[in-house]
Design brief:
The complex is a heterodimer of chains A (113) and B (111). With 113 residues, chain A is mainly beta. Chain A is 0% helix and 55% strand. In chain A, the strands form 2 sheets. In chain A, strands 2, 4, 5, 6, 9, 10 and 11 form a 7-stranded mixed β-sheet that branches. Chain A has a 4-stranded antiparallel β-sheet with strand order 1-3-8-7, with no helix packed on it. Chain A is globular and about 40 Å long. The N and C termini of chain A lie far apart (37 Å). Chain B has 111 residues and is mostly beta strands. In chain B, β4 and β5 form a beta hairpin. Classes of the chains: A mainly beta (113), B mainly beta (111).
Chain lengths: 113, 111
């Protein structure tokens, strides 16, 4: 199947700093990618839909100025968590669609101290 | 919006069969997916149903009834490695084709 990568896999940052997470589709082009967040023992919650060449669409309750999404090419979307706080600590997962299947990246574990 | 319900936890014995149910409500149904997720890892795709009926894939089968808003995932010949969380997800055409996930069913396979 298709492969989606994420970088970094783990990151620890101090409160108030910003962190960028990259999501790449390695062997296919993805005009649309999705960003999810998963807190411990909870399911994945959709944060935003990333559209190549246009603005991302954010879900209700997700601050677009805090979670900046850039989908500059057909294989790369980035999520920047700005001014991170401890409550932003979570597992961030991206996905990309090919046909009827949605492939997930391996996730990024963010810890804000 | 959607309401996706699945049991929180299930336990089954190695070699047995287990059925994990999922019910949903959505206005723009465009497919139902099952994913497996081990702790600390990303979900891996198991199955996709968009039409009513049973889809079989090796030890895993998934069933869909659109009129009832119901699906199940059937796991046969359970192995210890099948202990994981199983996520039911619905794709909604009104939500840009993103997936909306249920809370997941944590399956424990015992010897």
């Amino acid at each position: 199947g298709a492969v989606v990568s994420q970088h970094p896999s783990r990151v620890i940052c101090k409160s108030g700093t910003s962190v960028k997470i990259e999501c790449r589709s390695l062997d296919f082009q993805a005009t649309t990618m999705f960003w999810y967040r998963q807190f411990p023992k909870q399911s994945l919650m959709l944060m935003a839909t990333s559209n190549e060449g246009s603005k991302a669409t954010y879900e209700q309750g997700v601050e677009k100025d805090k979670f900046l999404i850039n989908h500059a090419s057909l294989t790369l979307s980035t999520l920047t968590v700005t001014s991170a706080h401890p409550e932003d600590s979570s597992f961030y997962i991206c996905s990309a669609t090919q046909g009827n299947e949605q492939y997930f990246g391996p996730g990024t574990r963010l810890t804000v101290t | 919006g959607q309401n996706i319900d699945q049991p929180t936890e299930m336990t089954a014995t190695e070699g047995a069969i287990v059925q994990i149910n999922c019910t949903y409500q959505t206005s723009g149904f465009n497919g139902l997916f099952w994913y497996q997720q081990h702790a600390g890892e990303a979900p891996t795709f198991l199955s996709y149903n968009v039409l009513d009926g049973l889809e079989e894939k090796g030890r895993f089968s998934s069933f869909l009834s659109r009129s009832k808003g119901y699906s199940y995932l059937l796991l046969k010949e359970l192995q210890m490695k099948d202990s994981a969380s199983y996520l039911c997800a619905v794709r909604d055409s009104n939500s840009g084709y993103a997936l909306n996930f249920g809370k997941g069913t944590s399956l424990l396979v015992t010897p």
